[in-house]
User: Fold Phospholipase from consortium cosmid clone pGZ1.
Amino acid sequence: MFEQIVFAGGGNRCWWQAGFWEVVAPAIELRPRLIAGVSAGAATACLLYASDTRTALEYYRGALAHNRRNVYPLNAFRAGRRVFPHGTIYRRALTTLLGGRHFDRLLATAPEIRVPYARVPRWLGARSAVAIGLVGYHAEKYVLHALHPRFGRLLGFTSETARVQDCRGADELVDLICASSATPPFTPIEYRDARPAVDGGFVDNVPVDAVDPLGGRTLVLATRRYPRRAPVFVHHGRVYVQPSRKVAAAPWDYTSPADYEATWLQGRGDGEAFLRGLSAVVAEADRWGESVGAAGGAKGAGRAADVAGDAAGGAGGVRGAAGGAGRAAGGEL
Assistant:
């Protein structure tokens, strides 16, 4: 039914995507040809094929049992200790949940998965670019409620994409997802090909440009609320789904695994609601595609007529020139 799926980023809000997928995918036999996921959305997409959500939730309950805070300011004065625990916890979780047999299962069962990450503007240092980019990102998302922000591109952030299937091992996969998720100060700046790489959300947190523009029906799984839009809506022929209300989990809260489960459960409930209205929204998306196709066909027909007219005019000109040459030749003879 959907050939392409887009997993937006959002940190712990992406547990909503996992719950949604687990209800919707089996109900409609969802077997996409292509998936694009950024940041934690990429991690979630991989998790759904490599392992299962309940195992992941249980892992985080154990991993966070002794983490009481999201910031440890005194660690700034302790050698080898981090002020923010997120980077270490996140990388360890990815290694556990996507490594070993899970990595083998992922490669054996998943469709092509593309993971975008961002390159920082060349005219700014990496940390300065991230600081300014975060300000612009939050202004567009929370004030302007932009579905696809533009500030990062205007600032000079560019997007690059890598495929999960090109990773030669679990370590490379973890490095790729960490690069796509790198959001200082919570997680460190990563390096790919000796150049800084940061969260792909600095270019677009809903990475629709990473899928094929003519790749078929596309389902986009957002993780935040866009208050001017319905829970399910069609935009440029793509079907977007967003949480029906603000989810319990905060993006970078590593102290409340119970909120992860609540967010996952909300995703399951929203998935059931999505299934009830699925036929209508798919029909709307198809009508949009047909109208664009018809408009493109009309333009194409117009261009073809222009070309044909130019060709006919050119042929007439050739005939006129030939006739004139013949008459001139006859006069000379």
User: Anything to note?
Assistant: Residues 4-293 form a domain with the Cytosolic phospholipase A2 catalytic domain fold (CATH 3.40.1090). The first helix runs from residue 15 to 27. The first strand starts at residue 4 and ends at 7.
